[in-house]
Specification:
Low-confidence stretches: 32-38
Strand order of the largest sheet: 2-1-8-4-6-5
Order of helices and strands: EHHHEHEHEEEHHEHE
Mean pLDDT: 88
Distance between the termini: 6 Å
Structural class: alpha+beta
Radius of gyration: 19 Å
Length: 259
């Protein structure tokens, strides 16, 4: 199952009023798109709530979460706007590139050499360097602690909480994500923002994928490539996370990992 990154309102996300990078590409090139499960079966349609119902539910969830994380004696966090019209950002790093970004961060944190390549489909959380930083109590990175949501708050912290779907997740903040990305860039590349923004075009998987008759697509699904350049994949994913973080700051919306 692939990995997408989304920055936008929760109303749009849960109303399915957004299209991931593959869906956009498919539409632009005349293909149909069908999400499938890891077993190859089409994803069943869920019973839909109206956008107004979704907005009410996520606004209530937002207010409860902000009340829970606000500090005693301080002004409560201001709620971010929720609607079904605000713009959104999305792109598709896929798991191999996300893992490569974590590997580069871990290696530079401990002054260890970055492996030149990673295997296609590698289990990156089992890599000794990534596991080391994940377990390091003195260095808490939301990216290494399983965070899949970052709320549009300037303060940096990480917590566990139920999502609007009642699933429990690790949730960080956009302010914390910025600090982590800035730290990684300083450790590894010291790149300016224009360079970072270009990495989605100049770095990444060796070739673009194609959409098959069933609509399945992933840039990682290229049979002739079994290894990828670690630094190139890391920069590719980093650029997408940076763009999502900047978009979330400007629009005051959450960042989510979709998979």
């Amino acid at each position: 199952m692939g990995l997408d990154i989304y920055a936008g309102t929760l109303t749009r996300y849960y109303s399915h009023n957004w299209k991931n990078a593959v869906q956009q590409w498919a539409e632009e090139n005349g293909y149909t798109f069908q999400k499938i499960t890891p077993d190859g079966d089409p994803v069943a349609d869920e019973e839909e709530l109206s956008p107004a119902e979704v907005q009410g539910l996520v606004a209530n969830w937002r207010d409860q979460i902000l009340a829970a994380v606000s500090q005693p004696g301080q002004a409560p966090y201001a709620p971010w706007p929720e609607d079904n019209e605000k713009p959104y950002y999305t792109d598709k790093p896929d798991w191999d590139a996300f893992g490569a970004m974590l590997l580069v961060a871990a290696c530079h944190t401990y002054n260890e050499p970055v492996p030149p390549t990673v295997e296609k489909g590698w289990d990156f959380m089992e890599h000794p360097m990534i596991a080391r930083l994940t377990a390091d109590e003195g260095r808490v990175w939301s990216l290494f602690r399983g965070a899949t949501w970052w709320l549009p708050l300037a303060d940096a912290f990480l917590f566990q909480a139920p999502l609007p779907t009642d699933d429990t997740a690790a949730i960080g903040t956009v302010g914390g994500l910025r600090k982590e990305l800035e730290k990684l860039n300083q450790l590894a590349w010291k790149a300016d923002e224009d360079t970072i923004l270009n990495w989605t075009e100049t770095e990444g998987y060796p070739v673009d994928g194609t959409v098959g008759p069933d609509g399945h697509y992933s840039k990682a699904d290229i049979p002739e490539h079994t290894q990828y350049d670690t630094e190139s994949l890391a920069k590719f994913a980093f650029s997408m996370f940076w763009q999502a973080m900047r978009f979330a700051e400007e629009q005051q919306v959450p960042v989510l990992l979709d998979y």
